[in-house]
Amino acid sequence: MVGPYENEDGSPRYGQRLDPEELAAYRHTHGLDAGIPTSSSLPDGGQGLPPGGEVNPYRYDPQAVPPARHGLRPVGPRTAAVPPWRSPRPRHRWRLLVVGLVTMVVLPVVLLVSSALLLTGGEGGSGVALSASGGVYLGASRQLAIYSPGLGEDTSRCAVTDPAGAPVSVTPLEGMGGSLSTIGTFTTGVEGEYRLSCPQGTDGVVVGPRAYTERFGIIAVLVVAALGCGLLGLGLTVGGLVRAVRRR
Q: What is the value of pTM for the model shown?
């Protein structure tokens, strides 16, 4: 009976059958026996192998770690394959967006608040608009300025009296040129109601923290820096949004 891999004459249907001598000569001619290591050629002396035993190079070793290929990490007891189309750290895609928001919002606010504190010397509170009576309640030991509702009006000629009715010295604000140099400043002694009188009247006159005009140079630098941070942060925020959408 003819087998499925033999011809009718008994010859092999695929390839050519070789006897052991011919097979050994064929392997020796093509160098097939030179690549099989033995226990004597191994660095550790072929531990676990009998003397003279050969190592099968095609044997599967469960402890062997395959090299990383095509963006995948070796798979083992403590590792997991990471697809090449996914970032190993997806949270990094939001880093540029966070930096942009901080640069656009937080830094300008900090710079502007710092410039306001420099301008007023850290004095809290806002200005108080006076009525025609000129009365205003003020705290103790405060350096204040008298601001006119119109430009060019001299408030250094305004008279101020403390709660006891004693006059308070009013001096022009130094370090400013033009009509702004006519702003009057005074320092309160005790807490209570102070009363002001000006030649042009007190209706609309504002009493507020003194402006330290000698710091205008530093304040201008801070304002320009806040504007620059806002523009830079806007660019970083847009770039962060585009980057986050592309990596999703």
A: 0.45
